[in-house]
Amino acid sequence: MRGRDPREPHRSSTPLELLFDLTLVVAFSIAGNELAHYVAEGHLETAVWGFLFVLLSLCWAWINFTWFASAFDTDDWLQRALTMVQMVGVIIVALGIAPVFDSIDAGEPFNFRVVAAGYVVMRLSLVVMWMRVAKQDPANRRIALRYAVSNVVIQAGWLTLAIVRPGDAVLVVVLIVVLWAAELAGHPFATWGAENPDHTWRGTPWNSHHIVERYGLLVMITLGEGILGTITAVAALVANVGWSGEAILVVVAGTGLTFGLWWAYFVIPVAPVLARHRERKWAWGYGHIVLFGATAAVGAGLHVAAYAAEGEATIGTVGVVLSVAIPVLVFCLSYFVLYSLLFRAVDALHVIFASGMIAFLVGAVLLATAGVPLGWCLIVVTLSPFVVAVGYETVGYRHVAADVQREG
Fold first, then answer.
1. Residue 9, domain member (yes or no)
2. Other residues' Cβ atoms within 10 Å of the Cβ of residue 242
3. If DSSP codes are grouped into helix, strand and coil, which group holds residue 406?
4. Is residue 2 one of the residues assigned to a domain?
5. Nearest residue to 66 (alpha-carbon basis) of 81, 78, 83, 52
6. H/E/C letters for each residue in 233-281?
7. Structurally, how many domains does the chain consist of?
8. What is the dihedral of CA 271, 219, 287, 390, to 10 degrees?
9. What pLDDT was estimated at residue 199?
10. What's the rounded Cα separation, in Å, for the pair 109 and 141?
């Protein structure tokens, strides 16, 4: 169980990693359904807080597995078996998503016992993985032991909170914030001061091209929620009024929006920059949690449109448009922030792109306020990410090339 060469050429995702990602597909789908349900009913507090907690839980499970696998995956029988255990843990977490939302909506003590149980399963598997590294890879022994210990301690905190279920909401929020801060600080703590024997990299020997591919694959998985939301919305429209111009507009809008977000995301050549500046992994890797959440929420917003078509939404056309436009806005802003963090510079052209995207989103909301049908409003929302796509294909690619050249 030795560290792989971080400069290994042609490193790509393995079938085992892709199989693991399938559990995230199910979990994101359940989280998106819960978000859409509560947004459509106008229970925004439940929708937002429940989704944020579940999103962090799912993304964190994926991040821990992905970075470990990039550095140490040997694909032997035991690694495969331990990965299967992690998949079981993700499925248990997915089964606990509904109780999280229900407890918040009912004003009861926060109920994430099933989520915590899933995390126990995943963490036990991950700790065994790290102990294998500690035993078989002397160069990474200290890092592996730090990871194993921090995982056990933090998970004990989550489990205690889940079992006790304090009734004081403020205390619960404070404890959750403290535990999440400990989770996020665990990786820098474990790798602090650790270098490989020839001092060419710090921390675990992850592969930049592999990591970037893995993140891109998860983006595409979450974009799949947009396709699912489109199908759900159109099916609801057809069931209620048959095929119509509105149904066709929703098909075009949902598909176009998903395609536009995909196009915008894959413009940036991230891998060469991370390969040269490995210390920038923290902001880039953690910042993606916001982008993943926004992408999944876009699909949930399109699902809200399905509730509206069925007459089950209480938030009106403006609310439905906002449920799609707000996640698109968060996606766009996080996208530009990630670019700036990666290249350590703010491009004035990005301000223009961002302004154009926001203009389309605001325009869609204003059209909804004026009584324009939902399909046309969603078409205007769809144009937003294409500001980035068209901008980069016409003039922005020169700026990207200049940034890459500046980074060597």
1. no
2. 8
3. helix
4. no
5. 83
6. HHHHHHHHHCCCHHHHHHHHHHHHHHHHHHHHHCCCCHHHHHHHCHHHH
7. 2
8. 80
9. 46
10. 41
Give the integer Cα–Cα distance in Å for 255 and 342.
Answer: 29
Residue 201 pLDDT more than 70?
no
pTM attached to this predicted model: 0.92
- Return the structure tokens found at 312: 């089950």
Domain end marker among 191, 220, 254: 191
Structure confidence at residue 60 (pLDDT) = 92
Distance of alpha carbon 374 from alpha carbon 246, whole angstroms = 8
Domain extent at residue 371: 208-406
Q: Which residue has the higher pLDDT, 311 or 367?
A: 367
Q: Is the pLDDT reported for residue 13 higher than 50?
A: yes
3-state secondary structure of 197: coil
Query: What's the rounded mean pLDDT across residues 103-124?
Result: 92
Residue type, 26: V
Q: Give exposure, 190-220, as e/b (b: 16+ Cβ within 10 Å).
A: bbeebeeeeeebebbbbbbbbbbbbbbbbbe
**Does 305 share its domain with 225?**
yes
pLDDT digits (tens, 9 = 90+) for 213-259: 999 999 999 998 888 888 888 888 788 777 878 888 888 999 999 99
| Residue 202 confidence class, pLDDT cut points 50, 70, 90 | low
Task: Give the contacts of 119 (CB within 8 A, at least 6 positions apart).
Answer: 57, 61, 89, 93, 155, 158, 159
> 385 and 283 share a domain?
yes
Residue 218 and residue 102 share a domain:
no
User: Do 28 and 159 sit in the same domain of this protein?
Assistant: yes
- Cα dist from 325 to 55, 107, 189, 254, 314, whole Å: 19, 28, 38, 12, 18
Looking at the structure, do residues 155 and 221 belong to the same domain, yes or no? no
Rounded CA gap, 303 and 34, in Å?
10
Do 100 and 150 share a structural domain?
Answer: yes
265 within a domain of the structure (yes/no):
yes
Provide the 10 A C-beta neighbour count for residue 189. Answer: 12
pLDDT, tens only, 366-394: 999 999 999 899 999 999 999 999 999 99
Q: Interhelix angle for 208-241 vs 15-40, to 10°?
A: 40
93 assigned to some structural domain: yes
Residue 311: burial class (beta carbons within 10 Å; 0-12, 13-18, 19+): exposed
Which amino acid does the sequence have at 85? V
Residues 356 and 259 in one domain: yes
